[in-house]
Amino acid sequence: MTRLNSVCSLLFVPGDRPERFAKAVAAAPGAVILDLEDSVGKDSKAAARGYVKAFLDGVSDAQILLRINAADTNDYHLDLSLAQHPNLAGVVLSKAEAENTKATAEIINCPLWPLIESARGLGELSSTVQVPGVARLLYGTLDLALELGLDINHEGGLSMLNQGRFLLLTESLKAGLPAPLDGVCPTINDQHQLRRTAQYSAAAGMGGMMCIHPNQISIVESIFAPSYAQIEWASAVVNAAATRGSSFQFRGQMVDEPVLKLALKILNKSKFQQT
After folding, report:
1. CB 207 within 8 A of CB 30
2. Per-residue pLDDT tens digits for 91-128
3. How many Cα neighbours within 13 Å face the side chain of 34?
4. Quick one: pLDDT at residue 232?
5. d(CA 139, CA 164)
6. Contacting residues for 262 by C-beta, under 8 A, at least 6 apart
7. Which domains are assigned to the chain?
8. SS (H, E, C) 186-244
9. Model's pTM, two decimal places?
10. How far apart are CA 107 and CA 246, in angstroms?
């Protein structure tokens, strides 16, 4: 298990705003995504590649991902050279589908994070997760909602998006991948809305969320990262299991193999988030 397998917050930074790169890293998300796609206008993409390369040339220990443009664009081919930079921890592929995921993974030399944000991408998930080099799935809820005509503020739209979450979760599990990360909460200054959105996502089994502003990180981390109480419980369960066998009562709860696995999962996730 690598550290990026357990991160629960990813912070997008526009690739044409180099003054924000170091600040994004200092905000301490699980990883930073330097974005060459949606947040960068067409006339600014060449300059963005230059800014990103200059920044990557000067870092070595930061967890940096690069979001490249969709495979059906001219900018995708221009992005591929930068996507092979040795200081990248991974590459995020926009509009990921099975065929373009496979083609991209064969070119780059770091883990690939497919961003699933189309109906076709959802339909091809079972093939996408089998591509060698795929590290973790990301859920592009806003783009998918736009394509399908969903109202994300209504329970009907949420219900439809939940079907996509189910697919990402189950296909990740079957392929042995970490839990996928959910889409962004577009409201920046409404912390109550962000908290509700993150709690909903965590309850739905997602492994974290993507963020669009540094002030979203602490709330997302607090909801998705194991709490002190969870870590204490997990440690106590594991310690008890060492002397009491594989099935026993503990604090009024029956502990068997699934419960022990949950405790170990909590401790493992905690360990990587503290490094």
Report:
1. no
2. 999 999 999 999 999 999 999 999 999 999 999 999 99
3. 34
4. 83
5. 8
6. 234
7. 3-224 (3.20.20.60), 228-273 (no CATH)
8. CCCCCHHHHHHHHHHHHHCCCCEEEECCHHHHHHHHHHHCCCHHHHHHHHHHHHHHHHH
9. 0.87
10. 46
Query: At which residue do the structure tokens 């405790």 appear?
Result: 263
Q: What is the pLDDT of residues 15-28, one digit of tens each?
A: 999 999 999 999 99
Which of 21, 27, 17 has the alpha carbon at shortest distance from 219? 27
Task: Please give the C-alpha separations between residue 91 and each of 79, 80, 101, 138, 225, in angstroms, as whole numbers.
Answer: 10, 10, 11, 12, 23
178-232 tens-digit pLDDT:
999 999 999 988 999 999 999 999 999 999 999 999 999 999 999 998 777 778 8
Q: How far apart are CA 177 and CA 38, in angstroms?
A: 26
CB 212 within 8 A of CB 189: no
Which 3-state string (H, E, C) describes the chain?
CCHHHHCCEEEEEECCCHHHHHHHHHCCCCEEEEECCCCCCHHHHHHHHHHHHHHHHCCCCCCEEEEECCCCCHHHHHHHHHCCCCCCCEEEECCCCHHHHHHHHCCCCCCEEEEECCHHHHHCHHHHCCCCCECCCEECHHHHHHHHCCCCCCHHHHHHHHHHHHHHHHHHHHHCCCCCEECCCCCCCCHHHHHHHHHHHHHCCCCEEEECCHHHHHHHHHHHCCCHHHHHHHHHHHHHHHHHCCCEEECCEEECHHHHHHHHHHHHHHHHHCC
